[in-house]
Design goal:
One of its GO terms (cellular component) is plasma membrane. By secondary structure, the chain is mainly α. It contains 5 helices and no strands. It has one domain.
Length: 180
């Protein structure tokens, strides 16, 4: 065995082991999930008492907006979980969870293409909720109608939708072509 194969082998092992440099990113995402939980709980404690106050309690639109805010945070948390689990399993190491009965069925089966589609679908859902919240505030006191902001909100949301459709189309076309 010559010098070149040893150097090449050592280099390839180094490259392969460098995947572990991604592990701190996933720890950071777990901390971000804890941060989202803190915001969720704070929002919940803010809105729940308003629902039961006699006199000036929240109306149905305010209740819907509160629920949409909580759903929005939940979707962001789900997105973080998907990115953490799928990213770790696709790029770092398989999660060794033999015997774990609560393992979600999608774990270990979401490849990069599936991760990309779940990511864009979550972004579209979050964007749609944000846009709906803006529309539900139209005409409320203290919420001036900002047509430019609304226009840009719709444009950005439609951009996310079109991006998702194009990504799905690219994945579909890639699946239809013969591998080289």
């Amino acid at each position: 065995m010559g010098l070149k194969p040893r150097i090449e082998t050592a280099f390839e092992r180094l490259l392969f082991q460098s995947r572990w440099l991604m592990a701190p990113f996933y720890v950071g995402l777990a901390l971000a999930l804890a941060m989202l939980l803190a915001v969720f709980v704070a929002e919940l404690f803010y809105y729940v008492p308003q629902a039961f106050v006699i006199g000036e309690r929240m109306d149905s639109n305010d209740a819907i907006l509160a629920v949409l805010t909580l759903v929005d945070l939940s979707l962001a948390g789900n997105l973080l979980l998907i990115v953490m689990f799928s990213g770790y399993e696709n790029f770092v190491s398989k999660l060794d969870l033999d015997g774990e009965t609560d393992r979600p069925p999608w774990m270990g089966t979401v490849d990069f293409s599936g991760l990309k589609m779940k990511l864009i679908a979550s972004i579209v859902a979050i964007s749609g909720i944000q846009l709906l919240k803006v529309f539900m505030n139209i005409g409320k006191p203290g919420y001036p109608l900002d047509e430019a902001a609304m226009m840009w909100g719709v444009i950005i949301h439609l951009t996310f939708v079109v991006s998702g459709v194009l990504l799905a189309l690219m994945d579909w076309l890639t699946a239809k072509t013969d591998k080289h």
